[in-house]
Amino acid sequence: MKKLFVILLVAILSLSLVACGGTKQENQGANAGQGKTEAITLVVGATAVPHAEILEKIKPTLEKEGVKLDVKVFQDYVQPNIQLSEGQLDANFFQHVPYLESFTKERNITNLVNIAKVHVEPMGIYSKKVKNLNEVPQGAKVSIPNDPSNMGRSLVLLQKAGLIKLKDGVGIKGTVSDIVENQKNLEIVPLDAAMLPRSLEDVTLSVINTNYALQAKLNPVKDSLFIEDKDSPYANVLVVRKGDENKEAIQKLVKALNSEEVRKFIEEKYNGAVVPAF
Fold this sequence. Notes:
This protein is an alpha/beta fold. The protein has 10 helices and 13 strands. It starts with a helix and ends with a strand. The relative contact order is 0.18. It comes from Tepidibacillus fermentans.
């Protein structure tokens, strides 16, 4: 009787082990079947306004596509390109093509390429000391961006506003030395672009990039004394390293930035201060 009991006990234990083993295998199979593909993270460098705001807007859309967006905000125009070139970023979004071309040529950077136009930020002339350009006094100080492409752009804008005249043919490549007429003897003061809004306390006029104007709570449409036409060729672009253009995650980012969702966001949030370029 005792022997029979032992045999039955061994049989029961064996069946239990088999059952447990079967359950574990089934659970592993189920877990494997239910496993989700890990999201790909893209680190994108951007200036705060409007670039980072636009990127924040599309984060939920990209997450649904399996792309996690890590937005790294910069306060300057130098580090985003350097860090992208060195592989610390996957993309950047803060600049127009003339600036990209000028910067990469000056620094001998050959591995960056723009892959999508997103928006245009019309550059404007601002003042806290005069209410219109006719009030600008003789010898007034005018601050402008000191990087080559935006310097030329700002000088062209001052020319269109009737304040100076540039040497024929220089266009956006012009420098202060290319000014051939300056009837009010304006003192042109080149500064880092990020410093321009703060310079308004010390100068009569400042020619400010829209991203920094918006960041300083200036409304380009209402507060500027003179502003670029909305057909400005200075579209802000998404930039990546050469060879990454066709990566799936990058293409999803391009699609999101050129979507109707972003078009509507730009038009409603910035009221003409920023204009879609797609």
